[in-house]
Every structure is written in C-alpha cells, then in structure tokens.
Design brief:
Layout lengths: L1 H6 L3 H27 L4 H13 L6 H12 L2 E5 L3 E5 L5 H28 L9 H23 L3 E6 H7 L4 E4 L1 H7 L7 H31 L2 H16 L3 H26 L1 H10 L6 E6 L1 H26 L14
Antiparallel strand pairs: 1-2, 3-4, 3-5
Helix pairs in contact: 2-3, 2-5, 2-11, 3-5, 4-9, 4-11, 6-9, 6-13, 8-9, 9-10, 10-13, 11-12
C-alpha cells in the first residue's frame, strides 16, 4: 500500500504511515527499554514514558487511511445494455497485522507505566482546588457539546470527475462523517472480516475511548482517596487511546493527496483505456475534487479541548507520586 502511495507522489500520506506504523512502534519500545534502565529521576522517567505511551496511537493511522480509501473506491454503475461496472478496494491481510502490532506495542507501554508507578509509589491525592474542578468540568462540558456534532456532521466530501465520474453518474460524490465512515465500511468491500476489524478499531478510538476519558475526568473531580487515584490512572490510559487527532491527520492528508493516489492507481491499472479517453474524449480517467465540511471544524475543536484535558490529567497524575521520591527515585535501586 505504501509503495502505491509513494509512486503516486503522495509523500505526506506515505511518511505518516511509515512513521506511524513502522518507525514509531520500534522507536517507542527501544526508548522505553533504555529509559527504564538509565538512572533518571522519577519525574523525567514519567515524562518520557508518558510521551511515548500517549502518542503511540499514531501507529494506527493506516487504518484511518484505509477506511477512507475503501469508502471512496466503491463504484457500482449500470451502463447501457445492463452491464454493471463495479470497483472495490479490498484491504490486505497486512493491515490486520499492522493494527495488531500497534495495539500490542501500546499495551506494552502501558505495562512500563504501570511498573513505574508501582516502584515509585503514590501519595494521598490532594483535594482539588475550585479552579481545577472548574477547569475539569468546563473541559468535559465543552467536549460533550462539540463531540456529538463532530460525530454526526459531514467531515469531508470527494467528487469523482473524468471518465470514472461519468460512469458513476449522479453518484459521483462521496461524503462521510465519523459515524458513517465506520458503520458503512463493512458494506463497502467484499472483505467483511477486515472491514469489521477496522471499523471496530475506529469506533473504539474516536468514540468509546474519548467517552470513557470524559466520564472518568468528571467522576475523578469529585472522588477522593483510592478511588481518585484509580480514576486518574484509568483516565490517562483512556486518553492514550483517544485517536481523534490521528483521524484528523488522516483526513487532512487525504484531502491534500487522495487525488494523487486515485489517479495513479486508475491510470496504472487501466493505462490503455485512460489514454484512449484522453485522446477521444479529452477527459482524464479520474480526478478527485475534495472539500471539507463543518464536521471537520468540530473535530479540530474537540482535539484541542482533549489536549487541554490531557495536560490536566498529567498534572493530577504527577501530584499522586510520593513527594519524597518524585525527584530522586530510580527504578534500578
């Protein structure tokens, strides 16, 4: 898949997939092992482990690209004489392996953080100030109010022009929201198992994990003692699986470069027909015209608010380390 993207000069998509699915998981595991054994203060170790753990979800970006491609390359057109022209983008098994390895790497990074906190220990959580409580509640309310339209509103639209657009006729435009992209995925390809796998991953990253993080953030604001520590810890892990920013990167790269991929794939597969179309009809085989909708702005706002919630969670988590050990404890003692 990446080979096709690179040959089509879709360099941003290629770099995001290679960096997210290949470079980042390996770099993350190596860095975590090194950080685990190098003598560092508990705060520095937590910062590094938390950074790699939080952004490890970028390894799942290929699933979001795949979902857009499957939804886009779904053509069923009846031509004169009752001839059905059908085009499908079927995912390869390597996609399943890539998503599985990314999930495994994220679970391993969770274990590193868990053992770090077990070694360092935790102090009795301090009561939150009124200002912190207001910030937590305000962020939760802002997320809920913007998240619902971001899930339901159209995010992007692709219009197919050229010979492929003529074959599709009135159905040459494809719009999608977060919810429609995930729910329509299994019906857009013949490989139902992989499509359901990717759709489940999407729903977990962009709906389930964000919802759990908001609920835990709101509940931890009013909790105390052991329950507060548990909620803050679970909130961190839920935020590390919140993939709205990954989805946003995939949409931006798709808007910028999806037309290059479509043109290269169609022109490469049907080169003779495309040359004939260009000569006889003065039309390219395919051209994609992309457009953003209001749902995209909603997703941007939700991502910004979630980053604010993440920083607030990090602050709470750090406060739960034992003050006497937070600056000097090393895990090799």
């Amino acid at each position: 898949m990446v080979e096709y993207f690179w040959k089509s000069k879709a360099y941003l998509i290629s770099l995001l997939i290679v960096g997210g699915t290949c470079v980042l998981p390996i770099l993350k595991l190596i860095a975590m092992v090194v950080v685990w054994w190098v003598p560092l203060s508990a705060n520095k170790r937590l910062n590094i482990l938390g950074l790699f753990d939080h952004f490890g979800r970028m390894a799942l970006i290929d699933g979001f690209f795949l979902a857009q491609i499957i939804e886009l390359f779904k053509v069923d057109s009846y031509q004169p004489g009752g001839v059905l022209v059908s085009l499908r983008a079927d995912p390869e098994n390597a996609v399943l392996e890539g998503i599985g390895s990314a999930v495994a790497c994220s679970l391993i990074s969770h274990l590193f953080l868990y053992f770090h906190h077990r070694k360092v220990g935790a102090s009795q959580p301090k009561p939150e100030s009124s200002r912190t409580k207001l910030c937590s509640i305000g962020l939760c309310v802002a997320i809920v109010s913007v998240a619902i339209p971001s899930f339901l509103y159209w995010i992007a639209e692709y219009t197919v022009e050229g010979l492929a657009g003529m074959l599709e006729g009135a159905n040459n435009s494809t719009k999608f929201s977060i919810l429609s992209l995930a729910t329509n995925l299994p019906s857009s390809t013949d490989d139902k198992f992989t499509a359901n796998y990717v759709a489940t991953m999407m729903l977990a990253l962009v709906i389930v994990a964000p919802a759990i993080a908001v609920v835990l953030s709101f509940a931890s604001t009013f909790a105390n003692g052991l329950w507060k520590r548990r909620m803050v810890a679970l909130q961190w892990f839920a935020l590390s699986w919140t993939g709205l920013d990954v989805f946003l990167w995939a949409v931006v790269a798709g808007i910028l470069e999806m037309d290059m991929i479509a043109e290269w794939i169609i022109n490469n597969k049907y080169s003779d027909q495309c040359k004939a179309a260009a000569t006889l009809m003065d039309q390219p085989c395919v051209r994609l015209v992309s457009k953003l909708h209001s749902g995209f702005a909603c997703v941007v706002v939700v991502c910004v608010v979630y980053f604010g919630l993440t920083f607030l969670t990090i602050r709470k988590w750090k406060e739960m380390q034992r003050p006497s050990q937070s600056q000097a404890t090393t895990l090799r003692e």
